[in-house]
Amino acid sequence: MDTIQIQENIARASDILEQISKLNEMVSFHEKESKEKSMMKQYELMRTDFLKELETILNGFKINIKIEGIAA
């Protein structure tokens, strides 16, 4: 991986973590406040997609971890 690609991957990983944080808040809101199951599921699916992308980025750094929250 070249320096530019490394920087892009780091920036993307940071962005993904921010997005996951926001999605966690939305899931929590719908779980506790609105009880809107369909919206909660939609946010959980988006979170799973971000986690998969994050896992791919980390694998590029030769970091292999098990991320909880990724549906099998």
Secondary-structure topology with pairs:
Elements: H1 3-34, H2 37-60
Helix pairs in contact: 1-2
Written description of the protein model:
The protein is 78% helix and 0% strand. The protein is mainly α and 72 residues long. The protein has one domain. It is elongated. It starts with a helix and ends in a 12-residue tail after the last helix. 6% of the residues are buried. The mean pLDDT is 91.
Protein traits:
mainly alpha; 72 residues
Summarize the structure.
The protein is mainly alpha-helical and 72 residues long. The chain contains two helices and no strands.
How many helices? 2
Main sheet record: none
Low-confidence stretches: none
The Rg value, from CA coordinates, equals: 14 Å
Mean pLDDT: 91
| Structural shape | elongated
Strand fraction: under 5%
Overall number of domains: 1
How far is the first residue's CA from the last residue's CA? 29 Å
Report helical residue fraction. Answer: over 70%
> What is the strand tally?
0
* Order of H and E elements: HH
Which structural class do you get from the secondary structure elements? mainly alpha
